[in-house]
Design goal:
322 residues; alpha/beta; Rossmann fold; UDP-galactose 4-epimerase, domain 1; 2 domains; seven-stranded parallel beta sheet; globular; binds nicotinamide-adenine-dinucleotide; binds uridine-5'-diphosphate; NAD(P)-bd_dom_sf; UDP-glucuronate decarboxylase activity; Epimerase_deHydtase; NAD
Length: 322
């Protein structure tokens, strides 16, 4: 039997955080979910509230934390462009002050701490696909910078606490992930297209739809994250976790229309500033060190996600407020 640990998940009520909490609770660990509910709601973890090994705390990671834990998954941060651009200064504070607070806590109680970093550290990449050694092409003063640069600064803080204070860290660069429990109004492409297709609304293609993304289903992502946390101490990352299957945005729209049987039409809208033209993870390191690769193809994952969207009441989801 594996060792039971006390584990903190910041941003634990969010899309990815709630699935991570669910998995850790099922594995028998004592899980503390911490969230300020900026982009999520309690319903994401309501099914865990009566479990003896689950606790929920309302807290903002920009303020110091005092808990005694063995491991920390630092997932607190708005992730969708519309969410992180709502209050860009707060987004940067969440990444930077949040990292300082979890790292300080990890140092004090000798916890292992994993950072949810992002493919956005590569910006609009000139190298394709992106290996971890690629240093990225990020605009420091654009509308996406609060997120991209906040996450880059967090990676720096993690490495410096590791080198200076021997904090046991893990850095994971997550590529676009989708699945049930994504916020239906987060403005991300998968949630927008599915919602629009189900409601018979126009499918909004930004630009000409030739830009690409690589979409990872949430179960594959959670498995990769758990493997990285429990992997060898001499492999701290950064490691890419994502699905190398690359699709243009137009191809994604076509698949969603086909799978929903929707009569929605595609319409073109202006491309947002600094929108990356291509993105595909090189997962050589994850395969080698974690024996991990994604198993769920886009079509299968979209089918499950569409079923979830069809099962919820969209009115239960409010727009995020500060
Ligand atoms: P999400 O918005 O569903 O989850 C983020 C959670 O953090 C929410 O519950 C939100 O309320 C909480 N939060 C935000 N600011 C906070 C603060 N100051 N204090 C406490 N809690 C706060 O997004 P997600 O898709 O689940 O993303 C989770 C993490 O994974 C984020 O750090 C994100 O940057 C990273 N990530 C996600 C993706 C993806 O495709 N989903 C890709 C790359 C990186
Ligand atoms: N996008 C789109 N229509 C939408 C929402 C997004 O065409 O309704 C595009 C967006 O311009 C980008 C891609 O889909 O090129 C992915 O956008 P998302 O916000 O999901 O994630 P990110 O840009 O952070 O990868």
């Amino acid at each position: 039997m594996s060792l039971i640990k006390r584990i903190l998940v910041t941003g634990g009520a969010g899309f990815l955080g709630s699935h991570l909490c669910e998995r850790l609770v099922a594995d028998g660990h004592d899980v503390i979910c911490l969230d300020n509910f900026f982009t999520s709601q309690k319903s994401n973890v309501a099914h865990l509230l009566d479990k003896h090994n689950f606790e929920l705390i309302r807290h903002d990671v920009t303020h110091p934390l005092f808990l005694e834990v063995d491991e920390i998954y630092n997932f607190a941060c708005p992730a969708a462009p519309g969410h992180y651009q709502y209050n860009p200064i707060k987004t940067m504070k969440t990444s930077v002050m949040g990292a300082i607070n979890v790292l300080g806590m990890a140092k004090r109680c000798r916890a292992k701490v994993l950072q949810a970093s992002t493919s956005e550290v590569y910006g609009d990449p000139e190298v394709h696909p992106q290996p971890e050694s690629y240093r990225g092409s990020v605009n420091t003063v654009g509308l996406r910078s609060c997120y991209d640069e906040g996450k880059r600064a967090a990676e720096t803080l993690f490495m410096d606490y590791h080198r200076m204070n021997r904090v046991n860290i893990r850095l994971v660069r997550i590529f676009n992930t989708y699945g049930p429990r994504m916020h239906p109004y987060d403005g991300r492409v998968v949630s927008n297209f599915i919602r629009q297709a189900i409601n018979g609304e126009d499918i909004t293609i930004f630009g000409d739809g030739s830009q690409s993304r690589s979409f990872c289903y949430r179960d594959d992502l959670v498995e990769g994250i758990i493997r990285m946390m429990n992997g060898p101490d001499d492999f701290v990352g950064p490691v890419n976790i994502g699905n190398p299957g690359e699709f243009t945005i137009r191809e994604l729209a076509e698949q969603v229309i086909e799978l929903t049987g929707s009569k929605s039409k595609m319409i073109q809208m202006p491309l947002p500033a600094d929108d990356p033209t291509q993105r595909q993870p090189d997962i050589t390191l994850a395969k080698k060190h974690l024996d991990w690769e994604p198993k769920i193809a886009l079509r299968e994952g979209l089918q499950k996600t569409i079923e979830w969207f069809q099962s919820i009441h969209l009115d239960d989801y409010r727009a995020p407020t500060p």
